[in-house]
């Protein structure tokens, strides 16, 4: 069984002062660079999100600023959304898969409802790597 902590990974420092001033508010750095043997490095941003009406709610601002990261570094960003009330359940999806989804307003902020059917569920208590590879294979 492969565990997430067993994979080579680098946590990306997130403080505002390490982002060049002209890019502040325009780009978001994902949380982790994860090395996968014989495949390469993937980029992951981790979120704690509750399921609401069979969807995960993502801030449109975060989607846009992660898109800027994807463009600048010519890479895809995976989102890993963990449900606070189900700590071993994770939903994986690509940031770019949100591009065609409708925006809504929730408490004055633009958000995107990501239907669970567009995500790949993973049980982190089992083989997380197999779930990730399954999600990549679906592309």
What does this structure look like?
The protein is of the alpha+beta class and 139 residues long. It has one domain (4-137): 3-Layer(aba) Sandwich (Trna Endonuclease, Chain: A, domain 1), CATH 3.40.1350. The protein is 17% helix and 38% strand. The chain contains two helices and nine strands, in the order ββββαβββββα. The strands form two sheets. It has a six-stranded mixed sheet, with helices on both faces. The protein has a three-stranded antiparallel sheet with strand order 4-8-7. The protein is globular. The two termini are 24 Å apart. The mean pLDDT is 80.
Give the tags:
139 residues; alpha+beta; Trna Endonuclease, Chain: A, domain 1; 9 strands; 17% helix
- Envelope shape: globular
- What is the string of helix and strand elements? EEEEHEEEEEH
Unreliable sequence segments: none
Mean pLDDT: 80
Largest β-sheet summary? 6 strands, mixed
| Percent range for β-strand residues | 35-45%
Total individual domains:
1
For the CA atoms, what is the radius of gyration?
Answer: 15 Å
* Strand order across the largest sheet: 1-2-3-5-6-9
């Amino acid at each position: 069984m492969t565990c997430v902590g067993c994979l080579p990974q680098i946590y990306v420092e997130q403080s505002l002062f390490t982002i060049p001033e002209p890019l502040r508010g325009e780009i978001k750095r994902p949380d982790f660079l994860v090395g996968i043997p014989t495949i390469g490095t993937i980029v992951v941003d981790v979120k704690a999100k509750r399921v609401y009406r069979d969807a995960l709610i993502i801030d449109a601002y975060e989607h846009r600023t992660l898109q800027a990261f994807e463009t600048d570094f010519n890479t895809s960003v995976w989102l890993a959304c963990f449900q606070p009330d189900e700590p071993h359940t994770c939903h994986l999806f690509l940031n770019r898969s949100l591009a065609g989804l409708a925006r809504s307003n929730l408490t004055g902020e633009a958000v995107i409802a990501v239907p669970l059917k567009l995500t790949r569920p993973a049980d982190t208590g089992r083989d997380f790597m197999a779930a990730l590879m399954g999600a990549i294979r679906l592309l």
